[in-house]
Amino acid sequence: MTTERPLRVAIIGAGPAGTYAADILTKQGLDVSIDIIERLPAPFGLVRYGVAPDHPRIKQIIVALANVLGRGDIRLLANVNVGTDLTLEDLREHYDAIIFATGSFYDADLNIPGIDLEGSYGAADFVSWYDGHPDVPRTWPLEAKEVAVLGVGNVALDVARILAKHVPDLMPTEIPQNVQEGLEASPVTDVHVFGRRGPAQVKFSPLELRELGHVPDVDVIVYPEDYDFDEGSMAAIEASHQTKQLVKTLTDWTLREPTGASRRIHLHFLQSPHEVLGEDGRVVGIRMERQRLTGDGNVEGTGEFIDYPVQAVYRAVGYWGTEIDGVPFNHDKGVIRNVEGRVVDDNGTPVPGFYTTGWIKRGPVGLIGHTKSDAAETISHVVEDAPSLYAGTHASAEQLSPDNILRLLKDRGVPVVQWRDWEVLDAHERGLGEPSGRERVKVVPREDMTDVALKRTHA
Q1: What percent of the chain is helix, strand and coil (3-state, nearest 5)?
Q2: Are 367 and 355 in contact (CB under 8 A)?
């Protein structure tokens, strides 16, 4: 296909999904001009703002993402919010195709009585706080001695571990100063993690679970009465090496005696949240219903209830995507309505030039490898549709010029952070960590991030 200009593509979101989509698109033999538009002043999405700070191994994914964004053939336009700084109409006028890779940052709902009491939180909000997200408050109410965490995925483990871990053991990490100070003041002694199904159905990764057993001065306590395996559980163990590893680790822990550590993480299974208990509008406990396995790995309630005294509840029951005004959204699944990455309207008709990838496309499941294959599927449709994308754009050559979108943002007073500006902020954060031997200390307030990145101040 011969054209007089590159295909102009905007990718909304500079996390793994958006970055992989850009990388794959550059390798398709098309003449393309790609802008990745990111609402935060820093790239990398949930790798920067969703991975616990004491898991630097996972954060190494940033190195691979930086290699793509720093090549020079993909332009980063960060600190630009679609919906306010740029409208969908702006995007349509300046690009042939728009790929939404905005991810899932918000907590899924849990519809039980008392979930809205003071002291009941979404795990995603807490993760954003301890990861120094610029758009959340600087403080967090860490006032509970006993805490419940609902869920048996890695986010639940992260929340439990960060709550229970002593601050000196977090100091080699990149936690910001406000997070350090908040955790130092926490009176927590016991964190209870609850799973609705049995040990063979947990969603932890084996490595994360094993790491939990090595946190200094924290005992992991499990309860033999929470252990049951039906036919479905045994089949799951036999079918999956990962499940077998998880069950072995958990079973080994039933034989360990507590060491008398000053903090404890309790792992409970076959218990489903029934009600958050409150007094005077605050959390004072949680009522769990004992479950029993039904033979196929699923569970049903027994009618037996257990009350636990807790002063805070964190729900880690999944992430939920954010709707973008004007983009078709599936409210049942929390994703952009799409077929294989092509955005479709309520009737299933493709919306010309609109695509999606990552968690906002398929829901918050899967690992980085899934994100790559997911992006490849979406990009294959962009390539297939390329002739019609050119033909469907009625904008002038000036509007489609890469310089024009920058002029528009400048006229609107948006302080755009490009890749070279991010490198300034990155070096600044690394410099903050250097005196204490840390890889970096995050700058948290958005204004401070942009000031440093754009060399308006280094204070």
Answers
A1: 35, 25, 40
A2: no
Question: Do 231 and 124 lie in a common domain?
Answer: yes
**Contact yes or no for 120/30 (Cβ under 8 A):** no
In a domain? residue 211: yes
Find out whether 315 and 122 touch, Cβ atoms under 8 Å.
yes
Is 448 in a helix, a strand, or coil? helix
| 257 and 336 both lie in a single domain | no
Question: Could you tell me if residue 163 is left (phi over 0), alpha (psi between -120 and 50 degrees) or otherwise beta?
Answer: alpha
Cβ contacts of 52 within 8 Å, gap of 6 or more? 127, 130, 131, 158, 161, 162
Round to whole Å and give the CA distance between 236 and 200: 7
Contact 287, 277 (CB under 8 A): yes
pTM of the model: 0.92
Residue type, 134: P
Q: Radius of gyration (Cα) for the chain, nearest Å?
A: 24
Residue linked to tokens 């489609």: 400
> How many angstroms from the chain centroid is the CA of residue 375?
17
Neighbouring residues of 170: CB distance < 8 A, sequence distance ≥ 6: 53, 54, 162, 180, 183
Task: Give dist(CA 270, CA 266) in Å, integer.
Answer: 13
CA 57 distance to own-chain centroid:
16
CA distances from 288 to 185, 272, 276, 291, 314 (A): 29, 5, 9, 9, 14
Count of structural domains within the chain: 2
The range of the structural domain enclosing residue 137 comes to 107-319
Q: Which residue, 132, 99, 154, is CA-closest to 377?
A: 99
Residue carrying the six token digits 């308006």: 456
CA dist., res. 18 & res. 13, Å (int)? 5
Give per-residue pLDDT as tens, 370-384: 789 999 999 999 999
Query: pLDDT tens across 71-120, in order?
Result: 999 999 999 999 999 999 999 999 999 999 999 888 889 999 999 999 99
